[in-house]
């Protein structure tokens, strides 16, 4: 079986590679090398954010790779201080300028921040609709939106998000949010797909890995893609960057899938902040 990364269809007609490379917590000085390595071994989808402080380095790595702009799917996200529409417009221009790109493949609202901005993320979303309308964002979506936030967007805006990027890994299945996405044609992107490494020594994960002759990280990433979610594991370790890509030449059977799904700890398994209360605005 060849190890080709599938493209999957978004609700706006565009496609996205199901596996990408995440650059959260990669120091800007290490980002060019990490992204260059990822592109060399075959990743064609990079997930960054204004908040990560490395958009410029992501853009540089893509330019230096020799690949054409349209061969790489690039995602970035609106930072939390810029939800007012005028600020969002300026921030979006800054993102394109940092990347040195004239369009982005996917632009997301990073967090809903329901306790800030008088609870208004709808006017922010309408600014993203403008970016898609003028062609500078091919697709638009959200991140860390709970079901109530998605319901509100559906009631008060025209365009459905193409994706919702949320925390998902074996210890936190986030099933209610994923089910809403499935029912409304919003793809789920699973962030921290290996829980920043915390699920890799779980006895069940280790056991399944031994049974199929793969590493724990490969087994967990394979579990995500068989559930239909999009993933972009982060690593600055060259051997792991390659390892995480080699997940399309084997399959987990139903028993292995169910065993990993059964590790869900509900809310207790959440590693990151709860989107209902998260209100961090970088200085
Ligand atoms: N929208 C949001 O709010 C949000 C929040 C968090 C993350 N994200 C996105 O999701 C991406 C991935 O999440 P994440 O960076 O939090 O965590 P992650 O991908 O679940 O885990 C990354 C950690 O696991 C280690 N690792 C990677 N591959 C490994 C392997 N094969 N074996 C053993 N250890 C391995 C890495 O170490 P080394 O680097 O040392 O190899 C790093 O410490 C981010 O980069 C970002 O793009 C989005």
Taking Cα atoms only, what radius of gyration do you get, to the nearest Å?
A: 18 Å
* Quaternary structure type: single chain
Distance between the termini: 49 Å
Summed over residues and divided by their number, the pLDDT gives a mean of: 98
Strand content: 5-15%
Explain the overall architecture.
By secondary structure, the chain is of the alpha/beta class. The chain is 37% helix and 15% strand. Strands 3-4-5-6-7-8-9-10 form an eight-stranded parallel sheet. Strands 1-2 form a two-stranded antiparallel ribbon. It is globular. It binds NADP nicotinamide-adenine-dinucleotide phosphate (NAP). NADP nicotinamide-adenine-dinucleotide phosphate (NAP) binds next to helix 9. NADP nicotinamide-adenine-dinucleotide phosphate is lined by residues 22-25, 47, 110, 143-144, 165, 191-197, 200, 217, 232-237, 240, 243-244, 272.
Briefly say what this structure is:
The protein is of the alpha/beta class and 283 residues long. The protein is built from ten helices and ten strands.
Provide the descriptors you would attach to this structure in a database record:
283 residues; alpha/beta; eight-stranded parallel beta sheet; two-stranded antiparallel sheet; 10 helices; binds NADP nicotinamide-adenine-dinucleotide phosphate
Write the layout of secondary structure elements.
Blueprint: E1 7-9, E2 15-17, E3 21-22, H1 28-41, E4 45-47, H2 55-65, E5 73-78, H3 85-99, E6 104-109, H4 122-133, E7 137-143, H5 147-156, E8 163-167, H6 175-183, E9 187-191, H7 203-212, H8 216-226, E10 230-231, H9 238-243, H10 254-261
Parallel strand pairs: 3-4, 4-5, 5-6, 6-7, 7-8, 8-9, 9-10
Antiparallel strand pairs: 1-2
Helix pairs in contact: 1-2, 2-3, 3-4, 7-8
């Amino acid at each position: 079986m060849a190890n080709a990364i599938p493209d999957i269809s978004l609700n706006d007609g565009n496609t996205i590679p199901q596996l990408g490379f995440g650059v959260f917590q990669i120091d800007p000085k290490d980002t060019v090398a990490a992204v260059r390595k990822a592109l060399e071994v075959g990743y064609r989808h990079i997930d960054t954010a204004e908040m990560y402080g490395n958009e410029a380095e992501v853009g540089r790595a893509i330019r230096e790779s020799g690949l054409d702009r349209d061969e790489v799917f690039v995602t970035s996200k609106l930072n939390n201080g810029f939800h007012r529409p005028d600020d969002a417009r300026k921030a979006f221009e800054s993102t394109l300028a940092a990347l040195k790109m004239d369009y982005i493949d996917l632009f997301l609202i990073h967090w809903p921040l329901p306790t800030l901005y008088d609870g208004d993320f709808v006017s922010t979303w309408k600014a993203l609709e403008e970016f898609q309308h003028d062609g500078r964002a091919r697709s638009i979506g959200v991140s860390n939106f709970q079901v109530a936030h998605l319901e509100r967007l559906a009631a008060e805006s025209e365009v459905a998000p193409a994706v919702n990027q949320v925390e998902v890994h074996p210890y936190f299945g986030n099933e209610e949010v994923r089910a809403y996405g499935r029912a409304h044609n919003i793809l789920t992107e699973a962030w921290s797909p290996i829980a920043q490494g915390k699920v890799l020594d779980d006895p069940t994960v280790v056991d399944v890995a031994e049974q199929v002759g793969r590493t724990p990280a490969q087994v967990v990433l394979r579990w995500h893609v068989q559930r239909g979610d999009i993933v972009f594991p982060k690593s600055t370790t060259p051997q792991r960057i390659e390892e995480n890509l080699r997940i399309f030449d084997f399959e987990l059977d139903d028993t292995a899938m169910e065993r990993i799904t059964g590790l869900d700890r509900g809310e207790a398994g959440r590693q990151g902040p709860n989107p209902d209360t998260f209100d961090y605005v970088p200085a």
